[in-house]
Predict the 3D structure of the following.
Amino acid sequence: MQEKLLEVEDLTVSFGRGKFRVVDGVSFTLGREKLGIVGESGSGKSMTGKAVLRLLPGGATLEAKRLQHQEVDLLTADERQMRDIRGRRISMILQDPKYSLNPVVRVGEQIAEACRLHQHVSGQEAAERAVEMLAAVQIREPKRVFDLYPHEISGGMGQRVMIAMMLVTEPSILIADEPTSALDVTVRYEILQLLDGLVSRSNLGVVFISHDLNLVRRFCDRVIIMYAGRIVEALAADRLEDAEHPYTRGLLAAVPRIHAPRRRLQVLTRDPLWMEAPGVRAP
């Protein structure tokens, strides 16, 4: 039986004293695997990832029957415990490095800071590990890049820096929120291959949040499909074409295909009954 790194049961995130549910009864488990979360903007994907780390905006209310990371109950953990968990045990790659990196701090120092905070090593050792991690994410001349500011590096290099920062602490879970969305297609697949290799060597559990069905199909082991804050379908990534829910079928039909060109892509038709149906519990 696969080890459970994360257990989420009936997770709800709401605003306005519970009137507006942006995540509505989401349940899934995560082992040492790559789990994709797919859906349109506003479906609750990113909010689900942030809820795991309790990084919600002001005014948000989080409720769940269970939110467990190994021996730690994330619902009852105090803020001091959560600060220790964030980055050290569960890391999160945010969407765009331009907004995630501190513009006035050198990129190497930002990676080294994460190492100092969570692994309690000296400044020199943290800097050495940061350089090693920059090399691990295939950045040329890592010592030179260590001293650069975020505005001096490209988008692809910035994304590699973010990956280095999140993995230098050797977490057991990585939440990747659209980690390639700001990149062109060629660099996107390079970053994905890099991330895949690093994850496989470290034997992590990954939650991969994306709009891109083709990326998820290539990268992930399992996929959950979210609509209006709920999970409407869950299946193996290599069985995505066998999806049965009309929402998933609509998303697949809206993807352009080079080998099967169409004059017009299908427009997704939504059924109000989807909002009333109970969510699916992903195994």
